[in-house]
Write a structure and sequence with these properties.
The chain has 89 residues and is an all-alpha fold. The chain has five helices and no strands. The relative contact order is 0.08.
Length: 89
């Protein structure tokens, strides 16, 4: 109940940004820590900082555009940048 009380007291943007953090940086946390790189990721690389364009996109999605914009991004693969003409692994 304490967790829900803390979350409900947050602003809408803070709740959304916490969700972004949870689904982006947090999954890498344990791996980066095990490799001894988490401090470097957060410091030099700004791993847990949002790019200014991403931060600005929040307002587009907050107005309700996510329902229209996100399905094609994921179903057509537009959410994943090209890494080259062939697989990199």
């Amino acid at each position: 109940m304490k967790l829900y009380s803390l979350i409900s007291a947050m602003t809408r943007r803070d709740r959304i940004m916490s969700g972004v953090q949870n689904y982006t940086a947090e999954p890498m946390l344990w791996l980066a820590r095990a490799a001894g790189l988490w401090d470097e990721f957060r410091g030099e690389m700004g791993f847990d900082e949002l790019h200014p364009l991403v931060s600005q996109a929040y307002y587009t999605f907050e107005r309700g555009a996510a329902v229209e914009l996100l399905p094609p991004v994921f179903t057509e693969g537009a959410a994943f940048p090209r890494v080259g003409p062939r697989a990199t692994w």
